[in-house]
Amino acid sequence: MATTEPADGTIMRMAAARLTDHLPQLADRLFSEIHGGDGGHRTWVRDDDLREVCEVGLGHGLETILHPTGGRADLRWAERLGRRRAEQGQPLDQLLRSYRLAGRIFWEGIVEVVDREDPAAVAMLLQQTSRTWEAIDQQSRAAADSYHRTESLMRQRDAARTRTILDALLSGRGVDGGLLATASSVLGLPLQGRYAVAVLSRPAHPPAHSGTMRLIWRTTADAQIALVALGAAGLDDLVAVLRPHVRDRAGVSIVVGSLAEIGAAHRLARTALRTTPSSGSDGSARGEIAVLGQRLPSALLVSEPRLAERLERTVLGGLDAVKPGHRDVLLATLGAWLDCDGAAGRAARVLYCHPNTVLTRLRRLEQLTGRSLSRPRDLVELTLALHAQRLTDGDDEGGDRTMRPPPEQANVQGGPPAYASGNASGNAHGSAHGSAPGAAHGNSPGSVQGNAPGAVHGNAAGAVQGNAPGDVQANAPGDVPAGGQPSGQVSWNSEIVDSLGMGQRNWS
Asked: How remote is the C-alpha of 62 from its chain's centroid?
């Protein structure tokens, strides 16, 4: 049984056939509408391109009405157009606006033809209104979906290209003039400028912009790396931006003046990172940011690990003569003294002990190493050797153990850290007041045996330096304390400073 086409469908096909004869004029109207309301198309699309698209797009719409069983040529065209505009970089909202205008121009053309050919049939077109606009919505959705897919693929290609160029710069191939020009274009960076490189030991989610700074990130198997265009910012500003995002450690290079120097900056940033100890199980060193300019001695050592090892063995080898615990205490004391600019009083507060204890330990270290902290050359050697030891211990143990109080400095009988007290057995002269945790109890290494002659007295009655193994040995008549004086009774005052040969330094 044959079916008859609805009257409104017949009218639509008649109107579409008439419009086909006037397609160029209809396309001109759409072209003018697009340009008249928004000149943005002139930026992204040439006039001849836009004029062609107007005519082809309207033609596909008319063809779909005239031959509904021939498939949706209009949707296939919309997909091609969406891909084309994405590749040209035209904003999506401009593309969708052109579809809305095309729908209005198309519908106005249909109504005009019907009104001219059969005015009485215009009312019947109302039944086609919703179908027509649904078809236009389908076209715009197809164009938008194709646009988004193309844009995503382009971003992936651009990201891959950016990674390739960034890898080339970081590896030091920036000396290639052709690569530099490409890198400047793709990355949007000038050839000359203020640049730095930052290396994070663990991936994070740092920003891409901050103030005048721009950070271009690259994640590798072992680190997260940023090429940083500093603008007017300084390295302190960069450190402030990085700090909330550093989960473990980070290294920052010096400032370089061109893209060609990015490879060198990358190597220096990694060198700075190596001057920081790995985070231990207790979280030590976590969040540490090493700026190369502030770590030059350590950077020299990590750059030549064999020489650093030789330096440590040569300068600190004499410390192998004492127990490991005592060695650690001596090195911790040297580190604190150096960090406190040679002030024994400040170092004592850091180490929770008496200043005289600091002096005694330093004198013992001088004896064991054969070097004097009063001689500049010896001081440089000891400082560098301590850097080497810290770096070695950080690599071996996952942290810088010399920067933490040694286990011998445990509080004694619940007393305050600076002045734990305890009584040595025997007479009143055996009474001892320790200046730091671990103060004199007659049974521990370095303690004072109050029963024997030669008990040691401090500035306060019976004060004793007994904080670590070997600090004070006064267990028998004639014992020699670390200061080098035969025992009888040793008074801890300015005389002992002179006896240690350190009176001309800043021991305050």
From this structure: 58
